[in-house]
Design brief:
Elements: H1 7-28, H2 35-42, H3 46-50, H4 56-74, H5 83-99, H6 106-115, H7 126-148, H8 158-179, H9 181-184, H10 186-201
Helix pairs in contact: 1-2, 1-4, 4-7, 5-10, 7-8, 8-10
Length: about 210
């Protein structure tokens, strides 16, 4: 009789498999990654991998969830400084993420949204809608907290501003995937985004360090 495996062990093992899969997707993109590639990277059998994931789409969605947690955590309102600085820092960090295509999931994400089963079967990928809503809500929390503290005086609804921010970043990512960061001038575009964002939320920057 095989020994029972604890839930803690299963979660730890699943996280290790997700981390291994993430490395493969970064190296090879989505289109050219197979379940066998992930097995080889993780050093496990086919049966072991399929006990956690149904197919390559399932693996990628779990990798997305893992990767998205960093952004969600970034938007937890901080008491250590101005919330405007928190937003600025996140926007500025996007430059590295967008330009460093060989070290991030950008290439794999673009391929997934354009080439996987997702475009023709969106109803079977509920997490894609969920992640958009979660990110929107996380940004809204920061904006609303800024309003509560008297730091932000937004000129549009916080929901609309949050969606604008997401749409701009996603569009810049897709353009950069297609054209390269030399042509899309990522740093310049993000500077324009920060300029417009500052006008939209009208922050009180007197105490900004």
């Amino acid at each position: 009789m095989a020994p029972k495996v604890s839930e803690e062990y299963k979660k730890k093992r699943e996280r290790e498999l997700i981390e291994a899969a993430r490395k493969v997707f970064i190296e090879k993109g989505f289109v050219h990654t197979s379940m066998q590639d992930i097995m080889d990277k993780a050093g496990i059998s086919r049966g072991a991998l399929y006990s956690y994931f149904d197919n390559i789409d399932h693996v990628f969605i779990e990798v997305l969830k893992y990767d998205d947690q960093k952004d969600i955590q970034y938007f937890v309102p901080s008491d250590e400084g101005p919330l405007w600085l928190q937003l600025k820092n996140w926007v500025e960090e996007q430059q590295y993420y967008i330009e460093a295509i060989d070290h991030t999931l950008l290439y794999a994400k673009a391929e997934f949204f354009l080439s996987s089963n997702y475009p023709n079967d969106k109803d079977n990928f509920p997490y894609i809608f969920e992640r958009y809503n979660k990110t929107t809500e996380a940004i809204e929390v920061v904006l609303n907290e800024g309003m509560r503290k008297g730091e932000f005086r937004p000129q549009q609804s916080t929901r609309s501003i949050a969606r604008y921010l997401i749409t701009f970043i996603n569009g810049l990512m897709l353009d950069t995937f297609q054209l390269g960061h030399e042509r899309t001038k990522v740093k310049d575009q993000l500077s324009v985004l920060l300029f417009s964002l500052e006008k939209l939320i009208n922050p009180n920057t007197q105490n900004e360090e």
